[in-house]
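Practice problem 4.
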């Protein structure tokens, strides 16, 4: 199903994320560094599905819990109550600027989401 490409990092010294890149009817599963994504300016995911809040959280010093560093959605507070989302959110941000947030699973739509590991747990 995939061609696997490793060690594509240029900006970083190690691979810490995998991306699925498409060309025609071919999928390439590429191991790379999040800094390379930032360098290529391929970190624009507005309108994409994002699993932040499930795979990542941001907890502020006052206990407020957000889905990720982008703080798109407040989930609650650790001292009172908060809920972990059960579905991906739709990103409303223009840029995904944090390396930690770039490690969170993302997909253009529900069809490409089927390619992600998070949707193929056995």
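Answer key:
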């Amino acid at each position: 199903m995939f061609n696997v490409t490793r060690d594509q990092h240029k900006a970083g010294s190690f691979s810490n994320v995998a991306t699925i890149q498409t060309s025609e009817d071919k999928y390439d599963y590429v191991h790379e560094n999040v800094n390379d994504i930032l360098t290529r300016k391929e970190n624009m995911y507005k309108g994409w599905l994002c699993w932040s809040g499930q795979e990542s959280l941001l907890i502020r010093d006052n206990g407020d819990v957000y889905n990720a560093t982008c703080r798109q959605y407040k989930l609650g507070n650790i001292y009172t109550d908060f809920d972990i989302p059960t579905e991906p959110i739709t990103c409303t941000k223009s840029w995904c600027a944090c390396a930690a947030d770039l490690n969170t699973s993302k997909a253009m739509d529900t069809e490409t989401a089927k390619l992600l590991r998070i949707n193929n747990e056995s």
